[in-house]
């Protein structure tokens, strides 16, 4: 399997994966969605809440705040047994009148903090107070959406053969994605632009899926970078394959 990075931004990655098959790419996609761990608030102790909002409502809001995550501290693959090996405490003590934002949370680990300080939690009026302590732990998207690191998807790549196109100019013009370009008497094809729509078929082109190549996308919520999500997904898949290998080797007939 070969990887070619097409776009590389902190929270977004677009990769061309070659010499592979759909099952492998789909396993990678599902691992990013369900198994790559990030930190999220899981327990909240409310000492004082004289706002007009219930404790449960505030707790839910806190849990959904994306937290920057230090991947070096999280065991992979994460399980219910090793989940408690790492936790961070966040405290909040605010008096009104004021809108309480995620930036008002103080973390025991500076590497674990809200990805944005501008997420509103609650409005406090004159004399109202919110004082609480929260515990953030790592978790996986398959346990709860608050632990989902981001989104992952893939797109098929197509092979287009234009050798039998009689009206080459019309064939190029028909392509809505500008994947075809006239070069003298030949047509140049850009596989990264084609979405397989088939509009060029009307002019004699042959379009078919290339089942050995896929364009893979990852977009994270800011807790970890897209590259960290990809690396973690690969490590998890490798660890699971090794576990399966040793289970088979230890199986007694
Ligand atoms: S299949 Fe569609 S996008 Fe691809 S080259 Fe043909 S017309 Fe363009």
Topology:
Elements: E1 2-9, E2 12-18, H1 22-34, E3 38-49, H2 55-63, E4 88-95, E5 98-101, E6 106-107, E7 120-124, E8 129-139, E9 150-161, H3 168-174, E10 180-183, E11 186-189, E12 206-220, H4 226-250
Antiparallel strand pairs: 1-2, 2-12, 3-8, 4-6, 4-8, 5-7, 9-12, 10-11
Residues 158, 160, 174-175, 177, 179-180, 194-200, 205, 207 line the site of iron/sulfur cluster.
Spell the H/E element sequence: EEHEHEEEEEEHEEEH
Principal-axis shape: elongated
| Poorly predicted residue ranges | none
CATH fold category name of the largest domain? RNA Polymerase Alpha Subunit, Chain A, domain 2
Give an overview in words:
This protein has two domains: 2-34 and 151-218, Gyrase A, domain 2 (2-Layer Sandwich); 39-145, RNA Polymerase Alpha Subunit, Chain A, domain 2 (Beta Complex), CATH 2.170.120.12. 21% of the residues lie in helices and 36% in strands. It has helices at 22-34, 55-63, 168-174, 226-250; strands at 2-9, 12-18, 38-49, 88-95, 98-101, 106-107, 120-124, 129-139, 150-161, 180-183, 186-189, 206-220. The protein has a four-stranded antiparallel β-sheet. Strand 10 (180-183) and strand 11 form a beta hairpin. The model has no long low-confidence stretch (mean pLDDT 95). The structure holds iron/sulfur cluster (SF4). Iron/sulfur cluster binds at residues 158, 160, 174-175, 177, 179-180, 194-200, 205, 207.
